[in-house]
Amino acid sequence: xxxxxxxDDKRFHWPRQCVWLKxxxxxxxxxxxxxxxxxxxxxxxxxxxxxxxSWYVILSVGxxxxxxxxxxxxxxxxxxxxxxxxxxxxxxxxxxxxxxxMRLNQNQFRRxxxxxxxxxxxxxxxxxxxxxxxxxxMSTFRVMTILLSCLIAMYxxxxxxxxxxxxxxxxxxxxxxxxxxxxxxxxxxxxxAFTYAFxxxxxxxxxxxxxAEDSIFGFFVTYTCGKFRLLHQRIDNIISDSNELxxxxxxxxxxxxxxxxxxxxxxxxxxKLIEFSNRLEHFFNPILLVNFLISSVLxxxxxxxxxxxxxxxxxxxxxxxxxxxxxxxxxxxxxxxGDDLIQHSTETAKHLYGCNWEGxxxxxxxxxxxxxxxxxxxxxLTSIHPTNKEFRQNLQIMILCSQRPVKITALKFSILSLxxxxxxxxxxxxxxxxxxxxxxxxxxxDHSNNS
Length: 451
Fold this sequence. Notes:
Elements: H1 18-23, H2 40-74, H3 79-104, H4 106-120, H5 128-137, H6 139-167, H7 189-243, H8 252-308, H9 314-353, H10 376-379, H11 389-402, H12 418-450
Helix pairs in contact: 2-3, 2-7, 3-7, 3-8, 4-8, 5-7, 6-7, 6-9, 7-8, 7-9, 8-9, 8-11, 8-12, 9-11, 9-12
């Protein structure tokens, strides 16, 4: 497995949800150049087995989707059956695309991981406050993980409860985790047990891929935002830190050189953040596009089941409540993280402009506006030198560049932000209204025919 660790932080670890990416065959392996010569044969064999397992997972999810699609086509005229089937079919299709994308873009994923470890990760010992804030923000993904885990557990276990409590083992048609139509007799003997286990595990792969991939995406974005906060702190302190050299009796030219050097270092790190964000977008944007397209339909379908479902088994009702809660939370958390990245990136221009480049005279009133005002008495400063022309020109260029927000898009069609979240909800409500209108019209027609 490709598992790089920062050189200065041996306690680094990935989110626990990433274990499922490794179990599902989606985690990248080491590149060929990383293999030791004496382990080439062993590594090659392990790589082959891991790739084989990865394709098996993709195949099992694909086959399960085919079974669900066959049922969907057969019962297309029944709105209730169709919407219930679409809930699981579309969820499977979304994560089939995710699994396939991650399998076919292993090198890209590896480069994203490598750059994150080298340039983005925040060491808790060096920056405890920001690192702690990032860890706390990741707790939202744990909530999403719990909801989705409960969802797949209910899909896999409720049919078994119905089987043993209500239907019975000798029933001609037995329940499965999802509505499916098979090309063989899957309701008797060992074929039922095998098919149930096969499709259940496919569903587990679907859901675990969903929360694991979203968690690592959130992990990347959260720590990128943390890096922006650290960058803003450095920008705020650039002038006051450079003026500390007055204590060492350096002249104004030396201070200007230090200011320019610090600004160049900040510009370099800022470019690294932009480069990583662009790489992150390039890797995840096809997945996000499919996610956006399917989420609006999924939320509509699940909401329709909750509102119109009559004589629904209490377990199914709870299942759909968990379903819509997990779908909404998954979509909101993604959009919230994308919006946070936009906010942090655009704040950079404000910090650059307010870094005191023009120089001010320090006294007890205006010194408190500066980040390190409490150190003024230590330095015995009466004034801060204005920056030179070269510094101001470089600063102006950085401000212009920083005014363009760093954002993650869904293949350039939509921006990952809270505005996109509200737009998807609005689209879902439109679909829901249309679907309910069609359903009510069918109900009235059936009622008139029966009369």
